Amino acid sequence: MIQLLILVAFLVLVVGVFLFYLGMLLSIRYEAPFVPSSQKATKVMLEAAKIMPGEIVYDLGSGDGRLVRGAARGGAKATGVERSRLLVFFSGLIGAITRTPKHTFLRASFYDVDISNADVVFTYLFPNVMAKLKVKFEKELRPGARVVSYAFKVPGWTAKERIEFSPKRPAVYVYVR
Description:
It is built from five helices and seven strands. By secondary structure, it is of the alpha/beta class.
């Protein structure tokens, strides 16, 4: 009986890992593959955003939801936007387990989500995506909204702050609309 339970647990684990990596591979076709930020990068981004309690935060391409949960723990109303069903499920599950307050995960394209009420927008997206998002930012973000981007710049914008926290890691860019 114990051997059967071990076998079932092993199969569930293998299927879970397979589905997780399949979801990551499929995310490439949506221009934003899942590449998790390090804990240090997450901490630096959250500190750079200077989030105040009650602010509205979006993470475009939220992946595993680290920034969303971190912003929510700081008192923000945080929303992660992610195309992958698996990552949305995983992020929500971790948020429920950790009882993180005031956060949501949407399964949607970040191009389609209205961010006009945002105080802070997080990104970790390739340059071609940042070029497309620049148009969205200029159309939707109100003056004073902050964009915090890991590794990739918003083309044509001048960063208010560039934070290099490790010689082996890319910089964090902070923009104010």
